[in-house]
Design goal:
This protein has 416 residues and is of the alpha+beta class. Helices cover 30% and strands 30% of the residues. The chain binds adenosine-5'-triphosphate and magnesium ion.
């Protein structure tokens, strides 16, 4: 992609009403546009990061036999009335709207009831179970507070996943597989070391749910973590969990975190309340077990922006960066640059080529602010020697690499 074809402009200052670091940085670097508090649009740069995060999640979901679908943002009240979650007293984040005939609709804040309604047409026999599905969908939530930038949106992208089972044992064992898949996801996103599987408040079916919490100053949660980091408990359930696990509160360290994922067992509650049953091998009507698993895709992007940044701007890992390489060309090198980009792209290296007629200093500042992991400079001077200047975002000084070895060197540096 050429900078001259990318409309995005970087800026020195963030909007004065934006208080969160992640949104300030992402706006300045041209990844998001603030529409209003808690509502952000994603530019071509922003969407590439979201797509990278989604792809990691998608691969790990498919690896545990989950299949992708997409449900709707407009929802019928009756499915939520059945489980007593339509009223604003029971769910305080609803956005609701009306059809022309004045009947009410909900704007989806979650899809547990929606997936049950969809599955009722497909799961009728024990032979149809288990099933696991997932989607990436924009959720609408009328959040009271929205001061955390893209980490708490009123409109945000979630990966939500649902599994349906004939027995509790089957649900339990799949749930454990999801925990492992989530651990792999956060590791691949580069936050594995600072992300904990956490005991959190449960629901009607289980005493505890599990949250995935990442250490992050801008987070809204407080965790208590054991020294060996094997146990983490959300402050909300500290006393209960400590008793249950039999661990001493004094051995736990307090950390501030952001919830990047949450997984939940509903058991047969939805099935029973919504009257959705399957027939077992003996011909008996049975309720299905439901578990639900979320990852905050846009929140993860915000957490990465918060955690991986310095005074010059963002610092993406290669796994989530919109492009691997920021190519800054200096002088009249257009033809050589075109050939160079083709070679890199053919090797799977994604390049943002700053072909603008502007000062090198501006190009370097943008490369840093945008946080592209590797910067390459191609100039009349480096070309004379058939070389390019290669520098990691995290390093101070560049190295000179023979042009025909750049692909290999970038792959090595970025571990592609
Ligand atoms: P929170 O406790 O942060 O309000 P939640 O418990 O309501 O979140 P879930 O309904 O379990 O969240 O949603 C699954 C995941 O979606 C969360 O773990 C979080 O990562 C993300 N998420 C929830 N609310 C938001 C939001 N308003 N903006 C961005 N991401 C969100
Ligand atoms: Mg939660």
């Amino acid at each position: 992609m050429k900078r001259t074809q990318l409309f995005v402009k970087t800026r020195k200052d963030a909007p004065s009403d934006e208080v969160s670091k992640n949104a300030q940085l992402l706006i300045r670097a041209g990844y998001v546009h603030k529409v209003m508090a808690g509502v952000y649009a994603y530019t071509p740069l922003g969407i590439r990061v979201l797509e990278k995060i989604k792809q990691v999640v998608r691969e790990e979901m498919e690896a545990i036999g989950s299949t992708e679908l997409i449900m709707t943002s407009l929802q019928r009240p009756d499915i939520w009335q059945a489980t007593d979650r339509w009223s604003d007293d029971s769910v305080d984040v609803w956005f609701k709207t009306r059809l022309k005939d004045d009947s009410e609709l909900g704007l989806a804040w979650s899809h547990e009831e929606a997936i049950m309604d969809l599955m009722k047409d497909h799961l009728t026999s024990y032979k149809d179970l288990p099933v696991s599905v997932f989607q990436f969908q924009t959720k609408m939530r009328n959040e009271l507070r929205s001061k955390s930038g893209i980490m708490r949106g009123r409109e945000f992208v979630m990966k939500d996943q649902y599994s349906l089972h004939a027995s509790q044992e089957d649900m339990d064992s799949y749930y454990d597989q999801v925990i492992e898949a989530y651990n792999r996801i956060f590791k691949r996103l580069g936050i594995g070391d600072s992300t904990f599987v956490t005991f959190a408040s449960g629901g009607s079916f289980t005493k505890f749910s599990h949250e995935f919490q990442t250490i992050c100053d801008a987070g809204e949660d407080v965790l208590y973590v054991s020294k060996d980091r094997s146990v983490a408990v959300n402050e909300e359930v500290l006393d209960d969990a400590v008793n249950e696990i039999g661990i001493d509160k004094k051995d736990l360290e307090k950390v501030v975190t952001a919830e990047v994922g949450n997984i939940f067992k509903f058991g047969t509650e939805k099935s029973e309340k919504m009257g959705i049953y399957y027939t077992d091998a003996e011909g008996q009507r049975q309720p299905m077990y439901l578990a639900s698993y979320g990852v905050g895709i846009t929140r993860v992007m915000g957490v990465l922006a918060e955690k991986l940044s310095d005074d010059k701007g963002l610092v993406w890992h290669a796994s989530t960066a919109p492009y691997h390489v920021y190519l800054a060309t200096i002088g009249d090198v257009a033809d050589a640059a075109e050939q160079f980009v083709r070679t890199l792209e053919a090797a799977g290296i994604e390049v943002l080529h700053d072909d603008r007629d502007t000062r090198p200093g501006d190009k370097f500042a943008d490369a840093d602010l945008m946080g592209i992991p590797c910067r390459i400079v191609l100039s009349t001077r480096t070309l004379e020697k058939q070389e390019a200047e290669v520098k990691l975002r995290t390093e101070d000084s560049p190295e000179l690499v023979p042009i025909d070895q750049v692909v290999e060197r970038v792959q090595e540096l970025l571990q592609l």
